[in-house]
Amino acid sequence: MNSVADTAMGSAVIAPKEWSQASQLFPTLFGQPYMGRKITVLDIGAARQRTVAFFSQFKCRLHIVDLYSADLLKQPVTEMSPTELQLAFKQLLGLNRQSAIDICLFWDIFNYLDPAQIKALCMVLKPHLHRGTRAHGFGSRNSEIMLADLEYSIQDADSFGVTQRRLNRLPCHPLPQAKLIQHMSIFSIDRGTLLADGRQEMLLKSSL
Amino acid sequence: MFEKRKADKQGSLGAQKNTELQNAPVGQPKATTTNTGEKAVIGAGIKINGDITGNENLVIRGKVEGKINLGSNEVEIEDSAQVTADITAKVVKISGNVQGDIIGKEKVVISKSGNVRGNIIAPRVTLEDGAKFKGSIDMDPSDKAAAGLPLSSKQNTEKVKAVADNTQRESSLGLKSR
Q1: pTM above the 0.90 mark?
Q2: Is A21 in CB contact (< 8 Å) with chain B?
Q3: Reported ipTM
């Protein structure tokens, strides 16, 4: 699964391999009562071709912010106050005041945020959610798990694509579901599915 | 739209003009485009500060700050380009750096070397893996001619419809694929 292969002639960069994985939860996520209206989607992962192609079938606004490449995650400043953290996430997300998000695609960002960061992110998102907001993400079975750095995309209405993340490894803070949900005041877990690699696919619903 | 020059045999546009343009005061750009017959080209050594309007296709390899409005034409922003401008065009193809809002009346294409910070409004947006993008993409495929959709997208749509319909049967709800 290495993205870089050394050859006798020198090093050659090989495009990361991508594989497809069925999602038990996507059909429910995309089967919500949007009724053909324009939907707003927040994707906090890297911009991916398949995800954009998928949403281009619908009348929608896709807001993409790659939190994984943010310095806040790469070089976290431990002494930031909750207010400072919220301000940092607010600037990173760059959401319009009027933005009302229907679907949040968190991917596995919660595994790379510490509890204070999770709380701050949720506080920044809160004004942009409504009662019908749904979210999708990957948690962890437990806090001891060794997670590979992966990047995700939507392949289809019932499957997602996975590839190795190109960026350097980020500090990892996996939390089991029970602890994660304690820090997420704005979402509750609607359904969860344990995946083979120890990740837990989660469908979240707004707690507002 | 611009004062035009015929491209020389090497196709160079900026090379011999770079020196004088580097000394040009900012905000007072000299003629900086070359008509290649089908497209106007802003060379890699050229910097334009101001608004660009017109009715022919445009290739940008240099720096542009201001606004670009070529509503019925194509704008191609190549790898070397640094564009800080709101762009309106029929088709916008981006391989370089763009900071600003983009309206593509037909489509917007961001290639893997593209780096875009801004909001995009277009009926159809293609983004290659590897491209850097931060902002929102406003898509309304209602303008799309079905014949213009790639086969995979059509299949995708059918699959989405099927899944949505199944879900709808189960829950009396459903995301309407268009």
Answers
A1: no
A2: no
A3: 0.85
